[in-house]
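Hi Prof. W.,

I finally got the Maleylpyruvate isomerase family mycothiol-dependent enzyme prediction working! I wasn't sure whether to trim anything, so I left the full sequence exactly as given:
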Amino acid sequence: MRRTFDDTLSWSETGTELLLDTAAGWGEEQYLAPSGLPGWTRKHLVAHVAANADALSNLVRWAATGEKTPMYSSPQQRNADIEAGSRKPAAELAAWLSSSAERLAAGVAGLNDDQWNARVVTAQGRTVPATEIPWLRSREVCVHAVDLASGIAFTDLPAGFMTALADDIVAKRGSAAGPAVVLAATDTGDHWELPGEGEPVTVDGPLADVAAYLAGRPHALTTPDGSSAPALPAWL
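And this is what came out:
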């Protein structure tokens, strides 16, 4: 694992600042513009990120008190909260985005060493130590800062985060159906192998494009013969 707990704390803070700064001052017109995610406006996306902060605060509370507090009451409720948030006025949505991030940061800052080692359960049903919470938040804020479709790109994210993201996605994709791919980051020398169907396809390019490709975002990666990198199934 090429990430430390301190790394994830730093990336969570960096991504949060990047996302908040990008959306700062937006009115209805900017919030109603399409995001980089199909079918979602920026309002949907911001509601999702704000709801995620509240959900991760539930895990912080679980770690702090020992009282089982799931991220979401149900997948249906999670989706309903995002849809409801997408209908909030711009100012109210912006306030939720900011206040939820502040509550999560305060909760994280209040955990002691023993509480960080407490076991909690993610929305995907994985039992993990609370030390995973900053990494879960890092993925949300960093990737979705790009998804706001307001000029932020993967090249604006910390290189260490992108490497860790690629590691994480490759580990998750290892058990999923899809094409076999060998990936190489030409600017860092890192390599990843995705097991899958057929002969492995070699794909290389800058780390930012590799991370974007693995995350299912727009990229410029091609195979040695110039054809597009093979499509991958969803990773989350």
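The first helix runs from residue 5 to 23. Does that look reasonable to you?

Thanks,
D.
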